[in-house]
Amino acid sequence: MKHTKRFKQQQQIVFFQSLGALLQSGYDMAQSLDTLFLAHHSWRSWLSDIQKDLAAGQSFSDSLRPYVSLDILLQLRLADQHGNLSESLILIGKNLRQIQRQKNKIKQVMRYPMILLIILGALLVGIKYFISPILNQWQNVDMSENKSLFVSMPFVVTTILLIVSVMVMICWFKISSRKKLLILVKLPIIGAIIRTIVTYQVSQQLTVLLANGLTLPQVLESLSDVPQRKVLSKTASVIIAHAKQYLADGESVENYILRQTYFNESLAGYFARGQAPKIIAKHLSYYAKTQFEMAMRQIDRLINTIQPICFGVIGLSIIGVYMSMLLPMYQSIGRLYQ
């Protein structure tokens, strides 16, 4: 029975870097997988399936399809067909390690705010179902207006947010993949991060293909031939088709990049000089690394911004909870002395 569960990201990091190192040391693919099979007992079920697929004539990228994400599959397919597979494997492992560090940092930053939110939720429940009824019993006058405000406001706000969320989701699913990307890159804060990530991914893929002497039209043709469901995401397929049509109309690569808001404009400069594909690939290799590092820095800044905002929102919420609890108490005490 074939396993369909993906490798955990930490396992992928070790797998890709170890496999790339073995290939660079002179081992062939079969020997490398055998070595990993013996070294990692927990991987044996996956590695056994991969070895069977390779023995049946499948490509390395196709054999990994059930276990890794589409963007990694595309990198593996291109590297297997046109580039240096061992170097690509090590690079994938390094990038995954950086991404894993960012995820761990996000978890650490958000852990304390999440605990405070849980405590805040418990306070709200306690006030609504325990303290509020007691306060209402103290009242000798009609508290229907205050009760209505206290009880129905959260319900009204929640209902409005739910309706708006459903409407946004319905509209979102009706929009094409490329239009979704155009909307995302215009959003404050996260738009710049998405733009940098897209630029990094595109420059990295172009590095592999251009290094083998392919021109950009040939690159687009090669990517168009890739089965979408197997390797390419829907968004990538739409972008490739759009770029292919644009260049077929006689427009330059530089102008195309400058007109697309989901690319950083600096990418266009590498295609403005009319250099040979292999020379462009060398420049793009360095450029892709800088874009990846920039994306990591942008995510770091976002993380450092999110935490104070979360604490501020939680602090205001706690003040609101205490106000809603204490004001009725003061009103009740005041009436006792009248």
Automatic annotation (TrEMBL):
Sequence intervals crossing the membrane: 109-131, 151-173, 306-330
UniProt topology in membrane: Multi-pass membrane protein
Lineage: Bacteria, Bacillati, Bacillota, Bacilli, Lactobacillales
Species whose genome carries this gene: Leuconostoc citreum (strain KM20)
Cellular localization per UniProt: Cell membrane
Keywords: Cell membrane, Membrane, Transmembrane, Transmembrane helix
InterPro entries (alphabetical): GspF/PilC, T2SS_GspF_dom, T2SS_GspF_sf
Domain Type II secretion system protein GspF span(s) in chain numbering: 15-133, 204-328
UniProt cross-references to Pfam families, sorted A to Z: T2SSF (PF00482)
Name recorded for this polypeptide: Type II secretory pathway, component PulF
GO cellular component terms, semicolon-separated: plasma membrane
